[in-house]
């Protein structure tokens, strides 16, 4: 699809699943943006709660800017986001999750950065974590990741706050459809983009707030943590990582095994102290 008159500058893509109790807050943060030249494409991934009904209410509120899709059964985030991406029209594509919040200037700042920095295809930012009671900690990021940073700083960009040039998204085929990548579609995407010669930048100001509570912890299963190591191994191969860095994957395997077997209470304590496991 080519850009034409009247098309939005930014397409926001959201895969939504079982987030009926948080979706309105997330969507309100989009309507509250200082930058308003956007369209929103949501795809419900087979939810059994009221997620679709909440999304439909917002579609009816602004049918010219909101597209709502639906998977009859749960397909996974990679397929769901690819469906959204296929319907996007913007020059830039921004991500958003159904249980998080974008700060009011997020889209304005990110779009302005890509406008003025044609050398970058990706821009993301630092984040803050929050739960039902408070904003409790930051997620720091390195400004200008290089391929070597995939070894010690993966993922090199936070996915949910990112904005990417649509042409770059499409050039690498969007998200890879592979069940071994579930929950780590973003990490694989960064490897694909960097392998294709694209580069990104991380703004140091936190433009996004990510919900991190008990439900988020439950999604970090042992099997998902082991998939993280697989994604790194396959990504190393994609970018031609020097062989001397491969032993680091054994360290990551041990770390993820330990975290996957750790009691929830201990994990929460360490996570909030270290802000990122």
Principal-axis shape equals globular
How far apart the termini lie comes to 39 Å
Low-confidence stretches: none
The CATH superfamily appears as Spore Coat Polysaccharide Biosynthesis Protein SpsA, Chain A
Radius of gyration: 18 Å
The CATH architecture name reads: Alpha-Beta Complex
Number of domains: 1
Keywords:
20% strand; globular; 9 strands; Spore Coat Polysaccharide Biosynthesis Protein SpsA, Chain A; 277 residues; 9-stranded mixed sheet; alpha/beta
Explained architecture:
This protein has 277 residues and is of the alpha/beta class. It has one domain (10-211): Spore Coat Polysaccharide Biosynthesis Protein SpsA, Chain A (Alpha-Beta Complex). 40% of the residues lie in helices and 20% in strands. It has 11 helices and 9 strands. Strands 1, 2, 3, 4, 5, 6, 7, 8 and 9 form a 9-stranded mixed β-sheet that branches. Helix 2 links the parallel strand 2 (38-45) and strand 3 (66-71). Helix 7 (185-195) packs parallel to helix 9 and helix 9 (222-239) runs antiparallel to helix 10. The longest helix is centred in the last third of the chain and has 18 residues, at 222-239. The N and C termini lie far apart (39 Å).
Secondary structure blueprint with pairings:
Blueprint: E1 10-16, H1 23-31, E2 38-45, H2 51-61, E3 66-71, H3 77-87, E4 92-95, E5 101-102, H4 106-116, E6 122-130, E7 135-139, H5 149-152, E8 163-165, H6 166-171, H7 185-195, E9 200-211, H8 214-218, H9 222-239, H10 248-261, H11 264-274
Parallel strand pairs: 1-2, 1-4, 2-3, 6-9
Antiparallel strand pairs: 4-8, 5-9, 6-7, 6-8
């Amino acid at each position: 699809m080519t850009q034409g008159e009247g098309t939005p500058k930014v397409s926001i893509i959201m895969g939504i699943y079982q987030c009926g109790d948080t979706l309105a807050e997330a969507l309100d943060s989009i309507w509250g943006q200082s930058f308003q030249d956007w369209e929103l494409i949501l795809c419900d991934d087979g939810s059994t709660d009221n997620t679709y009904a909440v999304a439909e209410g917002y579609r009816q509120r602004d049918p010219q800017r909101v597209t709502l899709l639906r998977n009859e059964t749960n397909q996974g985030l990679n397929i769901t986001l690819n469906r959204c991406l296929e319907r996007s029209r913007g020059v830039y594509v921004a991500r958003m999750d159904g249980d998080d919040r974008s700060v009011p200037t997020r889209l304005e700042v990110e779009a302005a950065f890509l406008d003025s920095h044609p050398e970058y295809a990706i821009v993301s930012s630092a984040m803050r974590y929050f739960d039902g009671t408070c904003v409790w900690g930051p997620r720091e990021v390195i400004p200008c990741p290089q391929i070597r940073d995939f070894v010690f700083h993966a993922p090199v960009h936070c996915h949910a706050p990112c904005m990417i040039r649509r042409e770059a998204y499409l050039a690498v085929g969007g998200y890879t459809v592979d069940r071994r990548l579930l929950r780590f579609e973003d990490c694989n995407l960064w490897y694909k983009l960097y392998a294709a010669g694209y580069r990104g930048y991380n703004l140091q100001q936190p433009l996004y707030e990510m919900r991190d509570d008990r439900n988020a912890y439950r999604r970090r299963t042992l099997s998902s943590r082991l998939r993280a190591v697989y994604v790194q191994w396959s990504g190393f191969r994609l970018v031609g990582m020097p062989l001397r860095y491969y032993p680091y994957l054994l360290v990551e395997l041990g770390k993820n095994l330990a975290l996957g077997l750790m009691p929830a209470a201990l994990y929460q304590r360490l996570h909030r102290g270290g802000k990122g496991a």
